[in-house]
Amino acid sequence: MIELKQITKSYRKKTVLDDVSLKIEGIYGLLGPNGAGKTTLMKILCGLTSLTKGDIQINGKSVVKRKHADVSRQVGFLPQDFNIYPELTAKDVLLHLALLQGIPGETERRKRVEEVLQRVNLLEQADTYMRELSGGMRRRVGIAQLLLRKPQILIFDEPTAGLDIEERIRFRNLLRELGEDHTIVISSHIVEDIEFLCTKIGILRQGSIQFEGTPKELKSKANGYLMRTIIPTECLSSWMKDDRVVHLIEHGNQVEVRYLEEVTESSSDVEPRLIDGYLKIMRGVK
Amino acid sequence: MSMLFLIKHLFSFDWKLHKTAILLPVFMFFILLVHISTASTASSLRVLQTAFLPWIAWTIILHLRPLFDEGARDTLLPHYRKWIFLDILRYTAIFLGMYIVLIGIVLRHGDSLLPIVYIHHVSIFLFFLFFGMALIWLTKNFEFALSILLMYTLLEIVTKGQFMPWPHVFQFETFEFDPLFVSKIGTTFILAIFFMMMGLFQMYRR
User: Fold this and answer.
1) I need a labelling partner for A242 at 20 to 30 A (CA). Which of A91, A131, A196, B73 fits?
2) pLDDT in the model for residue B16
3) Rg value, chain A, Cα
4) What DSSP assignment string belongs to A1-25?
5) Residues A136/A171, Cβ–Cβ less than 8 Å
6) What does residue A184 show for φ and ψ, rounded to 5 degrees?
């Protein structure tokens, strides 16, 4: 388990993260709007950025040394726009990184590279140039290079952003599979991905934690606030201007509109989804 | 894994990644080899400073370039940090080898040079090594860094440093001991240290 204790990060006078405390385990989803501080938090977690205050513990042991997490062996980080050495093949890139990471013996390195390529389902693309791989495939090479040194914790920043639907599903499935033997942290603003993958969720807004708990607990935040009404299709345009609306479901020439009320309604019988809980929390902190 | 194997791998990886671009200093070495074979000592020393030693800046800029490709920095930076001193050492070894051959040809007629000339060459080498490193870190762009490097070096050569409102690094006229020459070497070393600190600070800061 990773425990973040009162993490604060300031750049000059601006506080990007303010007293953030989290307990990360299983597949952990970090949700929040753009600019909430998710990427900064992830970079602090993997030692790429220093922290101003606070502590990070992995399995009960502090890993902070001189204001940054010293976790290069335990943690692997995949940035959102992973793209390295476009002029080389995936296999050449991995063999090079394997050597720099200190994996001894050429046979051993080749074996490890083959293993990780198989794990991310890219064996057939091993000799393809990085520049010729699709965005999802490049990210899978990114995962492969992380797996080379067998870290116990994997951190993904917006892993499915910008991928087409099929790639996104393939990528999500891979993350789920990796979650079986790794602690995984995923930051995203795509609530659907988090719902599919995560066993625990944290919500970050303007640098501070608004919620931490299970998906079920997050959903329950919208209990009693979610209402629905059936309207004819021609009335839809007036409803679309209402920012309470969270879902639209078409039924022939009628539309079911689901919306979030600001106060609890005892008549509410709608089962909330994860996004409803998320929106309730985001709107509740106006 | 032996260090020798690692160094061999790093050179062959440079070749795979940069292709002939990494060999430009070697091409220059062969051109200078031909030139120096027929030129006077003074002329040879001038081209050694201006047309050979500054190529180390090209080498280091080229080496660091992949860090500034979009989406590469977070992944590659820890590796570059870990190996930068070995990278500097292996490039220095190659340049030293070529330098020894060139200076050997300059001295083929039994002439000798004052130690201050060698010290000056070391200062120019270090200056361009760290100037190149600092430039790519400051501009974060291969083309910008290279343009600034090229413009600065050409301006120094063409104007023989007269144009610059600060002491220039090359020595064009005399290679004898004189206080101006000594102060130039001192300044070049100070600038090299300044750029080294700037480059390494940028590389290691989090």
Assistant:
1) A196
2) 94
3) 21
4) -EEEEEEEEEETTEEEEEEEEEEE-
5) yes
6) -125, 135
- Apex A104 CA angle, A123 and B200, nearest 5: 95
Q: Which two tokens stand for residue A123?
A: 């064996």
ipTM of the complex: 0.87
Tell me the C-alpha distance between B95 and B102, whole Å. 10
* Nearest-10 Cα torsion for A206, A209, A214, A216: -60
Taking only residues 121 to 150 of chain A, the set having a beta carbon closer than 8 angstroms to any beta carbon of chain B reads: 142, 145
Cα separation of B180 and B183, whole Å? 5
Could you tell me the two tokens for A125?
Answer: 């693309």
Best B7, B75, B86 residue to mutate vs chain A (most A CBs within 10 Å)? B75
Give kind and range of the element (H or E) at residue B93.
Answer: helix B73-106
From A57, A42, A71, select the one nearest A185 (Cα to Cα): A42
Measured between beta carbons, the chain B residues lying within 8 angstroms of A99 are 1, 6, 9
Show residues of chain B in contact with A49, CB under 8 Å: 206
Question: What digits encode the pLDDT tens for the residues A57-112?
Answer: 998 899 999 888 998 889 999 998 899 999 999 999 999 999 998 888 889 999 99
Q: Which residues in chain A are contacts of B69 at CB distance < 8 A? A: 83-84, 86
**Predicted local confidence at residue A284, as pLDDT:** 75
pLDDT per residue, tens digit, chain B (206 aa), is 688 889 999 999 999 999 999 999 999 999 999 999 998 888 899 999 999 999 999 999 999 999 999 889 999 999 999 999 999 999 999 999 999 999 999 988 777 889 999 999 999 999 999 999 999 999 999 999 999 999 989 888 888 777 677 668 888 877 777 888 888 899 999 999 999 999 999 998 87
Residue A167 contacts residue A135 (beta carbons within 8 Å): yes
Two tokens, residue B11: 């050179």
Structure tokens at A88: 């080389």
DSSP A273: -
How many Cβ atoms from other residues are within 10 Å of residue A109's Cβ? Answer: 20
Q: How many CB pairs under 8 A join A and B?
A: 54
Q: Kindly state the greatest CA–CA separation across chain A.
A: 69
Task: Determine which helix (DSSP H) or strand (DSSP E) holds A183, and give its type and residue range.
Answer: strand A183-188
Question: What's the pLDDT score for residue B132?
Answer: 96
The confidence score (pLDDT) of residue B1 equals 62
Beta strands in A71-131 (DSSP E): 75-78
The packing angle between helices B73-106 and A90-100, to 10°, is 80
